[in-house]
Amino acid sequence: xxxxxxISDNLTHFTSGxxxxxxxxxxxxxxxxxxxxxSGEKIRGGWPCICFTEAPLTSLSxxxxxxxxxxxxxxxxxxxxxSWIFQAGGRPVIYQPDAEFEGLPEDIRWRHMxxxxxxxxxxxxxxxxxxxxQLQFDPSIAAIVVPNHEWAARxxxxxxxxxxxxxxxxxxxxxxxLAEQYREGFPWRIFVLGEEAG
Length: 198
Hints:
- The structure is a single chain.
- The two termini are 16 Å apart.
- The protein folds into two domains: 10-144, no CATH class; 149-186.
- The protein has four helices and eleven strands, in the order E-H-E-E-E-H-E-E-E-E-E-E-H-H-E.
- It is 24% helix and 23% strand.
- The model has no long low-confidence stretch (mean pLDDT 88).
- The protein is α+β, with helices and mostly antiparallel strands and 198 residues long.
- The protein has helices spanning 20-33, 82-87, 149-171, 176-179, and strands at residues 10-16, 35-37, 50-53, 73-81, 91-92, 94-96, 112-114, 127-130, 134-136, 142-146, 190-192.
């Protein structure tokens, strides 16, 4: 398949948050739990889904935002290979008027996204969905997206701080050198917005 600069081979789930600090904290919870949780709140029919964008990171230097349209996303997220999400049941949404919703077969209505030119247009999100209550993942499947290299460094530093506490706790009951054996390296790949995701 020829390379297309407007579409990525990856899909990114961006977190929400009222502030950068809140969004970063939300990302931390997602990564610690190693799962994304579905919601049907903004999906007609209420099916629980997990949402992604196929927009390439090179075009998202400030995150999944559109100054002309409401955006609830932060510049933090989790990125997956598109083929893995496809295998997990993910599909692109179907942009169409609400009047066409009932015309969809019932088993794919969860993919409906309202589109009314000049009235409602979220096509800039390039949305994909997985119809699930939750989606488990690990560092072999996913990577982390941050807005810049400073946040990437903070992510690693926070991990190291947590590991220091774990080692300190073990050192209370076993030899310090043995306690160090419980230290885990940072397992995630990190991608920075505006840069290519490999």
